[in-house]
Amino acid sequence: MSLLKLEDVRFAFPGWPPTVDGARLEVAAGAFHCLVGRSGCGKTTLLKLAAGLLVPDSGRVVFAGRAQDIGFVFQVPNLLEWLRVIDNVLLPVSLHHRPRQEELERALQLLEQLGLREHANKRPRQLSGGQQSRVALARALILQPSLLLLDEPFAALDAITREELQRDLLAMCRRQRTTVLFVTHDIGEAVYLADAVDVVEGGRISQEIAIDLPERTGAVRTSAAFARHCEQVRAALHLEALA
Ligand SMILES: Nc1ncnc2c1ncn2[C@@H]1O[C@H](COP(=O)(O)OP(=O)(O)OP(=O)(O)O)[C@@H](O)[C@H]1O
């Protein structure tokens, strides 16, 4: 069953040529898709259309759920400086009602799973960049979204922190059976995370590459299958082969 479907979606910013031009995409429930493509090809715009933050000029976005079932993580963590970490995580709840005990426990559990339990009472500026990204992830997961949309959430992080966050994101999404659409420039990141890599070119999906890897451990990054998939994505992006 598909949770999200883009049917011939077209979108232009007023006075500009189309940014998204006939995009088709189908994301099955529980699947992890990565959108990769050159700067300016329309990835963020596609994500905003999927989230309902932008409305297509033509075509349809079909999401089998309610708007509150969608979580969004941006490139910068966008945490509220005057709130403690735990209150930042609970923000989507607080916007509706005073958090209940079970919601507080759930927020603490998310922080625990992301290795931040002892930082719950700190302010965001007392955390490192990677820790702040984890808080943003916990905040996006607090309402248990069925669809999680992420726009280069780890782009500003160092390579080691990035690998750890990729591993933790996969574990969290598997545990909660979250469906994911993840935008990245990084081919290795896309191949490590995704069941399917969607290559975006000229505002549409030019190719979808199924990723078949046995296990998403750190070791898989050095496997022949991983390198092969990276080459496939590079070819779809018209980049020169590495070998
Ligand atoms: N508000 C806007 N008004 C006019 N044009 C816009 C607006 N926002 C984005 N664009 C244009 O739409 C195109 C696609 O932008 P988008 O942010 O979707 O690309 P992207 O693939 O996410 O890029 P990057 O990888 O650099 O983040 C770009 O040419 C951009 O200049």
Describe this structure in words.
The protein is of the alpha/beta class and 243 residues long. The chain folds into 2 domains: 1-65 and 147-243, Rossmann fold; 79-145. 34% of the residues lie in helices and 24% in strands. It has 8 helices and 9 strands. The chain has helices at 43-51, 85-89, 91-94, 101-113, 129-141, 159-176, 187-193, 224-236, and strands at 2-11, 20-28, 32-37, 58-63, 70-73, 147-151, 179-183, 196-201, 204-210. The protein has a 6-stranded mixed β-sheet with strand order 5-6-7-3-8-9, sandwiched between helices. A 3-stranded antiparallel β-sheet has the order 2-1-4, with helices on one face. Helix 6 links the parallel strand 6 (147-151) and strand 7 (179-183). Helix 7 crosses helix 8. The protein is globular. Adenosine-5'-triphosphate binds at residues 13, 16, 19, 37, 39-45.
Instruction: Provide the number of structural domains.
Output: 2
Give the SSE string. EEEHEEHHHHEHEHEEH
Structure classification: alpha/beta
Low-confidence parts, pLDDT < 50 over ≥5 residues?
Answer: none
- Principal-axes geometry comes out as globular
Number of helices, counting only DSSP H or I runs of 4 residues or more: 8
pLDDT average, as an integer? 93
Approximate helicity band? 25-40%
Distinct ligands, ions and cofactors found in the model: adenosine-5'-triphosphate
Strand content: 15-25%
